[in-house]
Amino acid sequence: MQGFFNGQSSVAKVYWLGFVLSGLVFNGLYKYINYLYLTEIGAAWERTETAHNLLLAFNVLWVGVLLRALVKSAYNGRTPGGWGWIAICLVSVNFVYTGFVTFTVLLPGIYNPLFLLQAEIRELNKQLPQRMDSETVMTRVAVEDQNLKYFVTAEFEADDLMQDHLNWEFSNESPGGQEICNLMKGSFSGGLKEVVYVFKYTNKTLSAGLTAEECSAYFAALRN
Prior knowledge:
It is a single chain. The protein has 224 residues and is α+β, with helices and mostly antiparallel strands. It has 2 domains: 2-106; 118-223, GMP Synthetase, Chain A, domain 3 (2-Layer Sandwich). The protein contains 9 helices and 5 strands. The protein has helices spanning 2-5, 11-39, 42-74, 82-106, 114-125, 162-169, 175-183, 185-189, 212-223, and strands at 130-131, 136-144, 147-154, 194-200, 205-211. Strand 2 and strand 3 (147-154) form a beta hairpin. The model has no long low-confidence stretch (mean pLDDT 92).
């Protein structure tokens, strides 16, 4: 194993066994964590968030170690050929991408461009629809006209007060709304205009959301 990480294995072995195979394992773990994000609440959700952060940090460290091993293998008594340079470039791009995603998760205020948000949404949609609890199912997520939209099916009727309730839940004065502002701060800086939840009840469809301007007002109030 020590030889594997110190350039004594072939480029192909480091790439396919180290990078590709471990990538499949990481993808499986991320899918499971996404499932927990959609289904857990309270303290269990917070534990899931901690596990996600640790997994991201380890992922970056692991890819960095593999990149070092790959470069040492490519230069082990020779200069890299075409395949060697391709493998190094692929792992380098993954290292930069994974590192940036990790920073945007650990430090949500970091600028997060829309194309990265869309890439994250594509991965999330692979696991949808997903039942969140006994009465709600998240069906899909989309970025439309610079708005992030979550589509949820609620298997019960909405009463006349439901819209007012949603407006409060997704305002910059509620704890839930403030958490959305904190989590999406970097994406708002990257061009996102609004986070919208669309609830399809058995008798009607209602929606509520938070705009970038509303979250900016919340952050401004915190500074005062």
